[in-house]
Amino acid sequence: MLGLDSCPAERGEAEHESTDFLEPTIETTAPDLWLTHDGVGLGPLRVDLAETYWRWENSLPVMAGYARQTPESLTERTAGLEAQLEGSADQTRFTIYRHHDDTWAPVGMTSLLTDDRYRTGEFFIYIGEPDHRGHGTGTIATTMILDWAFHVTALRCVYLEVLANNTAAIRAYEKAGFGTVGTRRRTGSWFGQPADEVIMDAIPEEYTGPRLVEAAVLGNRQSRR
Ligand SMILES: CC(C)(COP(=O)(O)OP(=O)(O)OC[C@H]1O[C@@H](n2cnc3c(N)ncnc32)[C@H](O)[C@@H]1OP(=O)(O)O)[C@@H](O)C(=O)NCCC(=O)NCCS
């Protein structure tokens, strides 16, 4: 299973005398958003969120969801973010935002790692802010990623692996349009025990979600489809 080392962030220096970085990120200016739908926004990865990504990815619910066994240092995460910010040719990564109290708050991250030879992409997601899990954000963001994958990145198939025990994730993926194609046995770990992994995929011919990309490009003009 590909872990969260594929999902990291950046920052200028690494010293930390205070614990201010453990606080949720408060936005003071409106973030750049590429796509919005139903109170969920997708925007670019941000250097200034390096510590936030690190905090999210090293929280136990996210570590458990990715069967990650060792926490990552902020130094490693910072280096990882630098690589991610320079690897846009085969990586599409978004900060996920949720709109509430008249602001867009960063709440998680989602990624598509593409294989140009076959026009496929592996999908990853987490909602890092605990209060924002279980309120539909993951489902909406997953739908938005599929729209982007098929109508911007021109992928022929998007796939993922998820621990069979991760019922909330599987439910969110199903609602967003992924279908199960198989199970790999005992290739994962759940609370230290061997766990199966479910393989899911989605193809553009079966996509029935909202055409957000098309609407963003064409606006009120008639679609040419
Ligand atoms: C998986 C994750 C991205 C889903 O995002 P989310 O915003 O919490 O999910 P949603 O609220 O959109 O949907 C969750 C669905 O699972 C359901 N659900 C939640 N807990 C469940 C459980 N224990 N059993 C069954 N269904 C469950 C919810 O009821 C909801 O379905 P519903 O809308 O039909 O009621 C998020 O929970 C997360 O980041 N988890 C930690 C990291 C992780 O596991 N990432 C995925 C690794 S593959």
Automatic annotation (TrEMBL):
A GO molecular-function annotation: acyltransferase activity
Keywords: Acyltransferase, Transferase
Record-linked InterPro entries: Acyl_CoA_acyltransferase, GNAT_dom
Origin: domain of life: Bacteria
Domain called N-acetyltransferase: residue spans: 40-210
Pfam families linked: Acetyltransf_1
EC class name: transferase
Record's keyword annotation contains Aminoacyl-tRNA synthetase: no
Protein name, entry field: GNAT family N-acetyltransferase
Biological source species: Promicromonospora vindobonensis
